[in-house]
Amino acid sequence: MKERGVRKKLVGVVVGTKMDKTAVVLVNRLKKHSTYNKFIRRHTKYLAHDPNNICHDGDTVRIIESRPISKLKRWQVVEVMEKSEIAAIEESNSQAQE
After folding, report:
1. Which of 94, 83, 81, 77 is nearest to 58 (CA)?
2. Are 75 and 66 in contact (CB under 8 A)?
3. φ/ψ bin of 58: left (φ > 0), alpha (ψ from -120 to 50), beta (otherwise)
4. C-beta separation of 53 from 21 below 8 A
5. Cβ–Cβ under 8 Å, residues 56 and 14
6. How far apart are CA 53 and CA 27, in angstroms?
7. Phi, psi (deg, nearest 5) at residue 47
8. C-alpha to C-alpha distance for 87 and 27, rounded to whole angstroms
9. pLDDT digits (tens, 9 = 90+) for 40-97
C-alpha cells in the first residue's frame, strides 16, 4: 500500500466551538528573532474539522493537516489530549441528569 505524504501535526487549545462540526484551535509557537536572537511568542488560529463535536472550549487537542473540507478548514481534530475542567464538569452534569 502506498502511504500518504508527511502531514503536519500541531497541538493547540480550543478557543471556539460555536459552529457545528468545527473547532477553532489556537496554536502557540516560539520563533527566534533573526537579529536579536530573542524568542518571540506567536499564535495562529486554525479551523479544524470535528465531526463528532467532541471538543469543548479549553480542551488541548492534536490536529493534523488534511484535504480542504470547506473554504477555511484544512485541519482535522485527531484526539483530545486533555479535557478542560469546565468541559469535564458539564459532561458529568449532563450524564447525571439522564
Report:
1. 83
2. yes
3. left
4. yes
5. yes
6. 19
7. -90, 120
8. 20
9. 999 999 999 999 999 999 999 999 999 999 999 999 999 999 998 876 777 777 777 7
Residue 23 contacts residue 58 (beta carbons within 8 Å)? no
Model's pTM, two decimal places? 0.83
Contacts of 19 (CB under 8 A, 6+ apart): none
Structural domains of the chain in order of their starting residue, each with its CATH number: 9-97 (2.40.50.140)
- Name the grid cell of 23: 473547532
Is pLDDT of 1 > 70?
Answer: no
Q: Measured between alpha carbons, how far apart are the two ends of the chain, in Å?
A: 45
